[in-house]
Amino acid sequence: MATTCLDLPQNSSNHLEDYHGRISASIPFTWESQPGTPKHNFHEIEADNDNLPPLTPPPSYSYSVTTRKHARKSKKLALSDGSQLQVITDKTKNEASPSLPQASSVSETCSLNQAQKSKFHVGVTIDMLILFYTVIAGVGGTLTAIDNLGQMGLSLGYSQRSISTFVSLVSIWNYLGRVMGGLVSEILLKKYMFPRPLMLTIILLVACVGHLLVAYHPPGGLYVASVIIGFCFGAQWSVVFISISEIFGLKYYSTLYNFGTLASPIGLYVLNVTVTGHLYDREARKQLAALGLTRKAGQALNCTGVQCFRLSFIIIAAVTLSGALVSVILVLRTRKFYKSDIYKKFRKKQSLLRRRRHLQDIRLCLC
């Protein structure tokens, strides 16, 4: 059996002495052959302990939790303001005294962020109030017409069958308006970047035509008016709620949805009860006085003729026109938004979801 010898260099003993604390050793080492034997003789170096530096705690010992939280908040505040980016480093308590200028810069950043947030909330409030008044004028007027459709038919001398036809037409065209209002506005937005609030303005202008047909009542005008008013009522709802989701986002959509819905009963009360009901009763009393009759207690007032609803629907048409003009302000305020690609962020989210699903499918296949 052949043996192999390792030739060590001449100065190998010096290396061993340097490595093992100036004590010559042989192979196998003593501390290897006898487990538990220390490699260094600490009794010999006990005299050198005075030269060793004193033990000090790590830097994290002097780094308090409050300083860490303050540094994190200051970093977030500085990063949120894109115009004034600042490099903020973590500092210990010993370095807290020279950081007074940094505290002032953080306070300035906070004030800038608060100013930006206040401007954002003001803008949202203005846009929402514009939309709120538009719903009061538009939906309130069309709901008043739908609510008084049967009474209008009786006043204008239509039969009960014709009145039932009016109600059916309003219900059918209400549904078609909800479908076509969202569909047409979506096509126009994608192809021509047509602003959604401008679509609402057009719907209100068309509704004015229906109100004027009721007011002046040309031959067969109530049939056409029921179609126009029913279609515009449905189209307004679809366009209004889509506009809310696009302009204000989906974070508080449920609150804004209910806030927009609140405009409908307000408009209905003002235009139906306060305006139309009052003017109808006044005209009915005039007709009773012209016939020399007096109204008995609990007797219903009945009015016949075009004049019963003429002034009411002229006022409703004027209010609806004012809502259309106010909605033009919203069109001007959101024109830059609708000229941009408003669905870009949604496409990014969809692409990220597809990539995640693809990676999950790959992992499942590998497993």
What's the gyration radius in Å?
Answer: 41 Å
Biggest β-sheet strands, sense, barrel: none
Strand segment tally: 0
CATH topology of the domain at 116-338: Growth Hormone, Chain: A
Uncertain runs with pLDDT below 50, 5 residues or more?
Answer: 1-25, 82-113
Number of helices: 12
Describe the structure.
Keywords: Membrane, Transmembrane, Transmembrane helix. Residues 32-64 are annotated as: Disordered. Residues 127-338 form the NFD4 C-terminal domain. Pfam families: DUF688, NFD4_C. The chain crosses the membrane at residues 124-146, 158-176, 197-216, 222-244, 256-280, 311-332. With 367 residues, the protein is mostly helical. The chain has a domain at 116-338: Up-down Bundle (Growth Hormone, Chain: A). Helices cover 70% and strands 0% of the residues. It contains twelve helices and no strands. The chain has helices at residues 12-19, 30-33, 65-80, 100-147, 149-155, 160-192, 196-216, 221-248, 253-290, 307-333, 335-339, 344-366. Helix 4 runs antiparallel to helix 8, helix 4 runs antiparallel to helix 10 and helix 6 runs parallel beside helix 8. The two termini are 52 Å apart.
